[in-house]
Amino acid sequence: MVLSCVGAMKEKTKKKRKPLTIDEIETAVDKVRQKYNDYVIQYMKPFSALQGFEDRYLQALRNRINMEVFLHVEISVLGELVRREEDELRNKQAERTRRAGKTKRGGDDFADRVLKELKKKIEKYPSIQLHKDASFEMQKLCGFMSWFYHEYFFTVENIVRGLSVSRTVHGLSGVAPALTDFYNVGEHRDPRAFSRYINFLSDPIRDYNAIDREEKRILVECAKILHSIHDAVRAAMDTGNIPEEEGKTVEKILDVVHNGIEDFRLKDLKPRT
Q1: Whole-structure pTM over 0.85, yes or no?
Q2: pLDDT in tens, 212-268
Q3: Residue 16 burial (CB count, 10 A)
Q4: Buried/exposed code over 215-230 (b: 16+ C-beta within 10 A; e: otherwise)
């Protein structure tokens, strides 16, 4: 009986782990720190994730928390964060593959049909090469805004300004600076309104969510400009003070703006007044 108890105690002592030494703890902390740094860089996360680990580590030292337990928790949490990022990447890749497969099979779904109809409506407009991977819609939208600014904006602004209708003139003058951001100012200079979009496309590590958000931002900004021009010109026409010849020009310009709003699906993006 005594021998069996002694044997059990020896076995228990043998299984008991020695606490980590200071050097081992520092080595482990450096490894976790490096893993957080890799996580931030690989998945384009804010450096606050790494700083958060540093803050928790200092707090653990102050509170004399067991370092083995602390490091085990940090490694587990970081592993879960990485797993989620990898799952998201795989899901996005699977979705892109699925869409590519549909395109190759020629099986159009509703979204495909909408895109085809959009392309058909806007292909008549000038196109400006923003980036080799820029979407067809963005290049056409840039072309349309630049073309409108160059061909029509100053004409209608001068006509309306001559009416001395302060509210209407202010409506046109207010959008002028924003409209110039869409104007293609030269062969070696990109329109300012598309600068962030081009930067996102030029990044070796593509953030497709950021690209999508930027495209939506550009569409909203274009809608704001075109609706403002449309409302200002319509208000000027409603005064009845535009001479007949100039009136025909204004009507033509109003049609151009209206068609742009319709063709680029900007009707529902009109800002609330």
Answers
A1: no
A2: 889 988 998 899 899 988 988 888 888 888 888 888 888 999 999 999 999 998 988
A3: 7
A4: beebbebbbbbbbbbb
